[in-house]
TrEMBL record:
This is 2,3-bisphosphoglycerate-dependent phosphoglycerate mutase. It is an enzyme of class 5 (isomerase). The record marks H158 as: Transition state stabilizer. GO terms for molecular function: phosphoglycerate mutase activity. InterPro entries: His_Pase_superF_clade-1, His_PPase_superfam, PG/BPGM_mutase_AS, Phosphogly_mut1.
Length: 211
């Protein structure tokens, strides 16, 4: 066994609350989002983890979630690397549109395909495969080597940038990833084997309400 990799999606953002496609736009956390980040941080404190380093995106909602988690585990100010490789999927022309309005315009099925399929990009944006094509190399070069040498690593990022990692870590098919939604603020604790495969995965919270 090697180190520990903790993945957590940011807490609810203003645009999650307003039901808007967000992507690379930069809304803040809502009050509930702050509470969710605190709950995730508390779960990690109860779990007893102390991190060696944290990674997050260049977007406010993920950075604030990261900071709130670090406060909860008593590690305010821990070295944190911010990189746009971990940003949310670029939602292209859908960014800023209401998700229900988009369903009314293009149909439920089409919008679901844009949101959850592996390789169908939203107009002008990134598919999950495109997102993975920047997340995965970053994970391989910057994050995984640390875990393999025994470090405990926090990654606070986004629904789809993390789905692209979870797909590979959990060995999910293109069909299986369609049904995967990550809840806001719920940490996933992975222990990895020396060959980079997953030895164990523990979810510290409830993923069932995710949509
Ligand atoms: O970018 C967004 O709108 C959200 O963060 C994730 O959206 P999704 O659940 O539609 O993929």
């Amino acid at each position: 066994m090697t180190g520990t990799l903790v993945l957590v999606r940011h807490g609810q953002s203003d645009w999650n609350l307003k039901n808007l496609f967000t992507g690379w736009r930069d809304p803040d956390l809502t009050e509930l989002g702050v509470q969710e980040a605190n709950a995730g941080g508390k779960a990690l404190a109860d779990y007893g983890i102390k991190f060696d380093i944290a990674f997050t995106s260049v977007l406010t909602r993920a950075q604030k979630t990261c900071n709130i988690i670090l406060e909860n585990v008593g590690q305010t100010g821990l070295e944190t690397i911010k990189d746009q490789a971990l940003n949310e999927r670029d939602y292209g022309d859908l960014s800023g549109l209401n998700k229900d309005d988009a369903r009314a315009k293009w149909g439920e099925e089409q919008v679901h395909i844009w949101r959850r399929s592996y390789d169908v990009p939203p107009p002008g944006g990134e598919s999950l495969r495109d997102t993975g094509a920047r997340v995965w190399p970053y994970y391989l070069t910057e994050i995984l080597p640390r875990v393999l040498r025994g470090e405990k690593v926090l990654v606070a990022a986004h629904g789809n940038s993390l789905r692209s990692l979870v797909m590979v870590l959990d060995k999910l098919t293109k069909e299986q990833i369609l049904g995967v939604n990550l809840a806001t603020g719920v940490p996933m604790v992975y222990k990895l084997n020396a060959d980079s495969t997953v030895a164990s995965k523990e979810v510290l919270g409830d993923m069932s309400g995710a949509h």
